[in-house]
């Protein structure tokens, strides 16, 4: 970041004039004139009013729901500087860039800066020139930083503390950051300064962890809907997953997206293979050098049409609003992880897609990783429960979105926009077949894999069947009415749902679990989906965001080209200038004056002044 506090007009000085009846800007006035939005969404207004009045808050709001405004606007309404705890350098850099574009005096302190840059920012902070200062938890907890903040506290110049990505406090989550556990220091040493903790991902258990560990017992809780209606959820059984992924990506040609893989090796191999197929794909995982990771992330943020192939090391802190898809080549570890990762798509509110391919082997692998981990038994128990909940999501024959929201304690109706709603799966009662499969595993000693058990069930007199005399068992030939492929699917489902376990120490033998007993006793049924026939769904040249019929696509393209060039000149990501949703609205409305342009969502006073004439000229010359 060059010139940490250069060219930053103090927000309170640049907000449009108020009426004579009021002496300070209102929250709505700030929303409209600084950030360019006409009205608040959901609980934003109530949260802002509460925090602006000095109250503590715990805010759960989905990605793209406008969490940042819940502390940024109070920071502008209250006297002093707001301190924002942010876990990643990339996140704070993007947010500071976006605030500066809106005319807000914001800066950050982190390890990417020189001593001179940090000294300049510190001077600006002490001089009262900053509305918001972003810091990493490690930086905040340093004795020097705490001492600096205590000086400001004594002068009553800290307006609030905002703890972003507060789920990082949870030791059960994959985004756990040990430093977050020490943020209770804010309660202990800065009593009276309001605190707001925010996250997009927290089940009831994680919410309680946040409250206890951050000492927010008296904080007011704001829980918004977890629904992201613009995201379409699709989950497929693995059947040549690379080709399935390639077909999916071809439907999203020219769009930005993320492909998640479980291992670093798979990330690199998948990125290289996609590049060979003509896809602009880049790898990202914690094992790559810092320079390569930073370079790839910068390209993803600042260029269009980049596909980032990554482990879960990538994502938190990525503010890119026009990610049009998130794909999973492997099963995530939990519904919380899946929700957070898929939530990185469609932050701008325009249509996006969450696609996953999975197989029973994914479940086997993750259960093995849990069993072999060094965690305590309580940790393993919770990890297994979260994995089982995710298996329930991928196995459901009902609405995916409804199932997902139910996990977070939210009631909903069928969405009509997921794969199961759009193409309801056919199912069959596989109870008798499942009993046969379990009986065969038991009768043969629970020491063989699925291949041999299928041979016994189908009455195949192979050498191995003869060697073990399994043609003499009561289960020999009792499943000859089903095809081998159907039996393999059934065994995968028995493993995925926990009725059979894989014994890795005995050559992947299948053994019965306690979960199998109710089925064998006739106390439960076993229903399976019938795999759909594979159809190639072509969307051709469809591009997002869609421009209505009659609106020249060329104007939208010209606006994006202008935005890209402007972003390069400003050395910021393109979406920091304007999001696609704003450009789309300009292309549709075709404003002819600054007043008409000011009515477009996402254009505040500062951006209107900086870019208004250029945009009007583009609209006029486009015809």
Number of helices: 28
Distance between the amino and carboxyl termini: 38 Å
CATH architecture of the largest domain: 3-Layer(aba) Sandwich
Report the portion of residues in β strands: 5-15%
Structural class: alpha/beta
User: Over all CA atoms, what is the radius of gyration?
Assistant: 27 Å
Percent helix, as a range, is 40-55%
Number of domains: 4
Shape: globular
In round numbers, the mean pLDDT is 86
* DSSP summary, beta strand count: 17
In CATH's first tier, which class of the largest domain applies? Alpha Beta
Spans of at least 5 consecutive residues whose pLDDT stays below 50 are 1-23, 536-545
InterPro entries: DEAD/DEAH_box_helicase_dom, DNA_helicase_ATP-dep_RecQ, DNA_helicase_ATP-dep_RecQ_bac, Helicase_ATP-bd, Helicase_C-like, HRDC-like_sf, HRDC_dom, HRDC_dom_sf
Family: Belongs to the helicase family. RecQ subfamily.
Organism: Pseudazoarcus pumilus
GO molecular function: 3'-5' DNA helicase activity; ATP binding; DNA binding; four-way junction helicase activity; hydrolase activity; metal ion binding
